[in-house]
Specification:
The complex is a heterodimer of chains A (506) and B (324).
Chain A lengths: L1 H13 L2 H19 L5 H8 L8 H26 L10 H10 L3 H35 L3 H13 L9 H16 L1 E3 L4 E3 L13 H19 L19 H22 L6 H15 L12 H16 L1 H7 L5 H12 L8 H4 L1 H32 L4 H20 L2 H19 L4 H24 L6 H4 L1 H22 L16
Antiparallel strand pairs in A: 1-2
Chain B lengths: L1 H17 L13 E5 L6 H8 L1 H8 L3 E5 L6 H8 L7 E6 H9 L7 H4 L1 E10 L2 E5 L7 H10 L5 E4 L4 H14 L4 E4 L3 H9 L5 E4 L1 H10 L2 E6 L24 E8 L5 H15 L2 H11 L2 E6 H26 L1
Parallel strand pairs in B: 1-2, 1-3, 6-7, 6-8
Antiparallel strand pairs in B: 3-10, 4-10, 4-11, 5-8, 5-9
Helix pairs in contact in B: 2-12, 3-11, 5-13, 8-13
Classes of the chains: A mainly alpha (506), B alpha/beta (324).
C-alpha cells in the first residue's frame, strides 16, 4: 500500500531527535504567539525564518509550520481568561469561553479547547494525507459566484452570534457592514470613507478592532462596576478538566467543527477565523437549547476551537498541492520555502516527497506535543484569575496596548483599539453585542467584492448565481434559513433560536 | 516594542553566528531599522530577509526589519519621510508603486524627489500574462484571435484597478484590437485560484507568483511587460515583440529620509552593493524569487526615476483621471 509506505516515510523522518527538537521549538513559540494578543503567526514566521537558513528545507518548514498551528492552541487562552482574542481565529471563543471563566469553569474551557484543537488538527492532517490532491481540485471549484453565495449564507447566520435582541444584533451587523466599506475599493481603486486618515486607506484591521470591542470594553465595564457587584473571577474554580458530561456535550460540536473547519480552510482567504465563526453559528442552529449559548455553553467553545485548527490545517492543502497561499501565514511559509530553494507548486509532492511527508509526520507529532504542553499549562493560566482585579486590569490593558502595536508596527492601531474599546463598552451597557458586528465586518467585504466580480464575469447577468450547482445549494440553504422562521411562526410554532429574551427587546 | 526586542535579540544571535567584526567608524554605531511598507511574505519582505545576513555582515551592525503595511504603504513610507536623517531609519520599497501615488493624489508632491536615494536592489517585469496550459490558445497571438472569434467572452483577472495596472490592461486590449473584461482580485493568490479553477480566462500576474505553476506545466506565461526578454524567463516573449506599446519595470530599492548626509548614504550604499553581489544571495534571489539583482547607487537611481516620471507620468495621470 502506497499510503503506508508514505506514512512510514513521514514518521521515520519526523522522529529524528533534532527534527523533534525543532518541532517542539516551533509549537512552543506558536503557543506563546497565540497567547500574546496582536502578534500573529505570519509576523513571527517571517521574523524567524532567516535563522532557519542554516537548516535544511524540511527542518525549516517543520519548525515554521509548528509556529503556525501552535498559535491556534494558544489563541483561545486569553479569549477565555480575559475576553481578549489572542488571534483572529479565537474571537468567537470569547463569547462562551469568557462566560465559562466567569462561572469558574476556565479550566474546563481551556481543557476542551486543547482537546478540540488536537482532534480538529489531527483530523485535518489525516484528510491532508489521504485526499490532498482531490481536495485541492474541490477548492478550485469556488469562484466569485460561490464566494458570494457562501458569504450570503454566512450573513444569514449573523443573528446566531448574539444572545439578546434580534433587532439589536441586526443593527450591529449593519454597522459591521458599513465599517467593512472603509478602505480602498479594489474594483475602482478609490478610497472609501477614509476621511483622509492614512491608516484607514487599507481598511480597519480586525485584530485591534476585536481587541477593543471584546477585551478593552470588558475591562472598562468591570472597572465601572463597584467591587461588591463585580462577580468576575470570584467564583471558586470548579475542576480543571472537562467532565464526562462536558465530553458528551462537546462530542457533536467537535466532530462537526472538524469537518466544517477543514473544508472552509481549503478556500482562498480561508484559515481559522471564518471556520470558527461558521462552527459557532452552526452549533447554535442545531442545538436543542440554543438559549444557553453566550452564557458559558461548552458547545460554543468546543466547536469553534476545533474548527479553527481543522481550518488551519486545511489551508496547507492549496499551498502544498497547487502552490497557492490562501492566507497571510501561508504566504510567508511559501516565501520561506522559496528562499530554501524549494519550488512550491503542483509538483511539490512528486519532486520533494520527503518534504511533504516529513511535514505531515511532524504535524502529527507536533499536535501531540501541543496537547501535552497545553494541558499542564491550564493550571498556570487559571492562576492568573486569582490576581486581584485592581492589578489585573492594568496588566490586561498594557498587554493589549503592546499587542495592538506589534500586529502592524503602527501606533494608529492602538488608537483604533482604544476607540473600539470605549464604543464597545457603551454598546454592551445598552445590550448591543459586538459579535454580529465582527462577523458582518468580515463577510461584508468578501461578499461585496465577489458579487461585483461575478457580475463582471457574467456581463451583468444575475443568473450566474443560479447556474452553478454549488452556488445554487448555498442560495437554497440561505433562503431556507431566512424563510423557515416565518413559516414556523405562521404554523403557530416558535423556534427557540430566535426567541427574544424578555426585557431586552425594543 | 517587544517585537523590536525580539528582532534585535535574533539579529544579535545572527551576528554571533556569522562571526562578524565591528568596524571602527562613526556609522553605524547601533542597529539600523529598515521599514518595509508591505506585509510579511511579500516580495520586498522576502528580498530584504534574503540579503539580511550579508547586509548585517557588511554594515557591522544588526538590522531591524519592520513591516508597516497600514494605509496601503502610506503609513510606512511617511514614517521614513518624517524620520531623522541619521541613517538609522531606512525604507525598502517598490519604487513605481509609491511614485504612482503622486498621480493618484495620495501624495500631493513628488515625494521621491525629496527622499535620499541610497541603493537599488533589483529590477523585474511589472507583470506577465498567464494562461492555463489547457486553454484553447497558447500564445498572445492565438489569444487575440480567439477573443476576436468569441467577442465579449474572455475575462482577465489581476490586481485591483486603478493606476498603471489599468493603463497596462487597456494598452493590451488596444494592441490586440480586442475587448475583454477585467476582474480585479485582492492579491495574487486569489486571481491564481480563479485562473486554475477556470473562473477567468487569463490573468495579469508577476514573475514570482507565476513561476510555480509555469514550471510545473499547469499554466503558461505568454507575454512579459518589458522591451526585451527577461533574463530569468527567457522563453516568454516581451510586450515589445508582441506589439504591445508599453514597458513596465518594477524596481526595489532602499531610500533614506530627506537631507541625509552623503557620507552616511555612501556607507549604506556600499554595504548594499557588497551584499547583493554575494553568490548565495544571487542564487536565492534570482533562482527562487525571480528578481533580477541590479545595483545602482543614489545618483543612478535618481536618473532612472526621472526617466520613469517623464515616460509614464502623463499616462498615469490620465489613467487616474479616467478611473475617477
Amino acid at each position: 500500500m502506497e499510503f503506508f509506505s508514505h506514512a512510514g516515510m513521514a514518521f521515520n523522518f519526523a522522529v529524528d531527535p533534532f527534527n523533534l527538537l525543532l518541532c517542539f521549538v516551533g509549537v512552543l513559540i506558536g503557543t506563546l504567539v497565540g497567547v500574546l494578543p496582536g502578534l500573529g503567526p505570519s509576523a513571527t514566521i517571517s521574523m524567524l525564518f532567516p535563522i532557519t537558513l542554516n537548516l535544511t528545507s524540511v527542518q525549516a518548514i517543520i519548525m515554521l509550520s509548528g509556529i503556525y498551528y501552535g498559535s491556534f492552541y494558544g489563541g483561545s487562552t486569553t479569549s477565555i481568561l480575559v475576553n481578549i482574542p489572542g488571534e483572529a481565529s479565537s474571537i468567537v471563543t470569547c463569547l462562551d469561553g469568557y462566560q465559562m471563566a466567569r462561572k469558574g469553569r476556565a479550566g474546563v474551557a481551556l481543557g476542551i479547547s486543547a482537546f478540540g484543537s488536537f482532534i480538529g488538527g489531527t483530523f485535518g492532517i489525516v484528510m491532508m494525507m489521504l485526499l490532498a490532491p482531490p481536495l485541492a481540485k474541490l477548492a478550485l471549484k469556488f469562484g466569485p459566484p460561490e464566494f458570494t453565495t457562501l458569504a450570503l449564507l454566512g450573513l444569514t447566520m449573523v443573528t446566531y452570534l448574539a444572545r439578546g435582541s434580534m433587532v439589536k444584533s441586526l443593527v450591529m451587523a449593519c454597522v459591521g457592514l458599513l465599517l467593512g466599506f472603509i478602505g480602498t475599493d479594489i474594483v475602482t481603486g478609490r478610497e472609501r470613507y477614509t476621511l483622509g486618515i492614512a491608516t484607514l486607506g487599507g481598511g480597519l484591521d480586525i485584530i485591534p478592532m476585536a481587541m477593543g470591542l471584546f477585551g478593552i470594553s470588558e475591562v472598562l465595564l468591570n472597572i465601572g462596576e463597584s467591587s461588591a457587584t463585580r462577580d468576575v473571577f470570584k467564583t471558586v474554580l470548579k475542576g480543571l478538566l472537562p467532565t464526562k458530561r462536558d465530553w458528551k456535550d462537546s462530542a457533536g460540536p467537535i466532530s462537526r467543527g472538524s469537518i466544517l473547519g477543514f473544508f472552509l480552510g481549503l478556500l482562498p482567504g480561508g484559515g481559522g477565523m471564518i471556520a470558527s465563526f461558521a462552527s459557532y453559528a452552526m452549533e447554535k442552529r442545531v442545538a436543542q437549547h440554543p438559549e444557553t449559548f453566550g452564557a458559558g455553553d461548552i458547545r460554543g467553545v468546543a466547536g469553534p476551537e476545533t474548527a479553527n485548527n481543522a481550518g488551519g490545517q486545511g489551508a496547507f492543502v492549496p499551498l502544498l498541492t497547487l502552490g497557492i497561499p490562501c492566507n497571510a501565514a501561508m504566504a510567508v511559509l511559501m516565501g520561506a520555502l522559496m528562499i530554501h530553494g524549494v519550488s512550491v507548486g503542483p509538483r511539490l509532492m512528486l519532486e520533494h516527497p520527503q518534504l511533504f511527508w516529513g511535514v505531515v509526520g511532524s504535524m502529527y507529532i507536533g499536535n501531540v506535543m501541543l496537547l501535552i504542553l497545553n494541558l499542564p499549562l491550564i493550571r498556570v493560566w487559571v492562576k492568573i484569575l486569582k490576581i486581584p482585579y485592581a492589578l489585573l486590569a492594568p496588566i490586561i490593558f498594557l498587554v493589549c496596548l503592546v499587542g495592538a502595536y506589534t500586529g502592524g508596527n503602527n501606533i494608529q492601531d492602538i488608537y483604533i483599539m482604544v476607540i473600539f474599546g470605549i464604543v464597545g463598552c457603551l454598546l454592551k451597557k445598552y445590550g448591543y453585542e459586538p459579535a454580529p458586528l465582527i462577523l458582518a465586518f468580515v463577510l461584508g467585504p468578501i461578499m461585496e467584492l465577489a458579487f461585483r466580480q461575478s457580475l463582471i464575469i457574467s456581463n451583468g447577468s444575475i443568473s450566474i448565481f443560479f447556474m452553478r450547482p454549488i452556488s445554487v445549494v448555498f442560495v437554497t440553504v440561505s433562503l431556507f434559513l431566512l424563510l423557515s422562521p416565518i413559516f414556523l411562526a405562521l404554523s403557530g410554532k416558535k423556534r427557540p433560536g430566535l426567541l427574544v429574551k424578555g426585557g431586552e427587546d425594543f | 516594542m517587544r517585537n523590536n526586542k525580539i528582532i534585535v535579540a535574533l539579529n544579535l544571535f545572527l551576528l554571533i553566528g556569522f562571526g562578524t567584526t565591528v568596524f571602527s567608524q562613526d556609522f553605524p554605531t547601533k542597529p539600523i531599522r529598515f521599514i518595509i511598507p508591505y506585509s510579511p511574505g511579500g516580495g520586498n519582505d522576502l528580498l530584504l530577509r534574503a540579503i539580511q545576513a550579508p547586509l548585517v555582515k557588511a554594515l557591522g551592525k544588526p538590522i531591524i526589519i519592520e513591516n508597516v503595511p497600514a494605509g496601503n504603504t502610506k503609513v510606512g513610507t511617511m514614517r521614513v519621510f518624517e524620520a531623522k536623517p541619521d541613517g538609522y531609519t531606512l525604507l525598502e520599497t517598490t519604487d513605481s508603486t509609491w511614485i504612482g501615488y503622486y498621480y493618484s493624489k495620495t501624495f500631493d508632491f513628488k515625494l521621491w524627489e525629496k527622499m535620499t536615494p541610497i541603493g537599488n536592489l533589483t529590477h523585474e517585469p511589472n507583470a506577465l500574462i498567464e494562461i492555463r496550459a489547457d486553454a484553447p490558445y497558447g500564445t498572445w497571438g492565438e489569444l487575440v484571435k480567439y477573443a476576436k472569434e468569441h467577442p465579449g467572452k474572455l475575462t482577465c483577472g489581476g490586481p485591483g484597478s486603478g493606476g498603471n495596472m489599468e493603463q497596462m490592461f487597456n494598452e493590451m486590449m488596444k494592441a490586440g484590437g480586442i475587448n475583454c473584461r477585467y476582474v480585479p482580485f485582492p492579491g495574487s493568490g486569489a486571481s491564481k485560484t480563479a485562473l486554475l479553477g477556470g473562473h477567468i480566462d487569463f490573468r495579469i500576474g508577476t514573475a514570482p507568483d507565476a513561476t510555480p505553476t509555469v514550471k510545473a506545466g499547469t499554466t503558461k506565461a505568454i507575454a512579459i511587460s518589458l522591451d526585451k526578454r527577461y533574463e530569468l524567463m527567457p522563453d516568454v516573449p516581451s510586450f515589445k515583440e508582441l506589439g504591445i506599446n508599453s514597458v513596465y519595470v518594477l524596481t526595489r530599492a532602499v531610500w533614506g529620509p530627506p537631507n541625509m548626509p552623503q557620507k552616511i548614504a555612501n556607507i549604506i550604499s556600499k554595504a548594499i552593493e557588497k551584499s547583493i553581489k554575494d553568490p548565495e544571495v544571487i542564487k536565492l534571489v534570482e533562482g527562487q524569487l525571480v528578481f533580477k539583482l541590479e545595483f545602482m547607487d543614489g545618483p543612478k537611481m535618481k536618473q532612472g526615476l526621472d526617466w520613469y516620471d517623464k515616460t509614464f507620468g502623463p499616462g498615469l495621470a490620465e489613467a487616474y483621471k479616467e478611473s475617477k
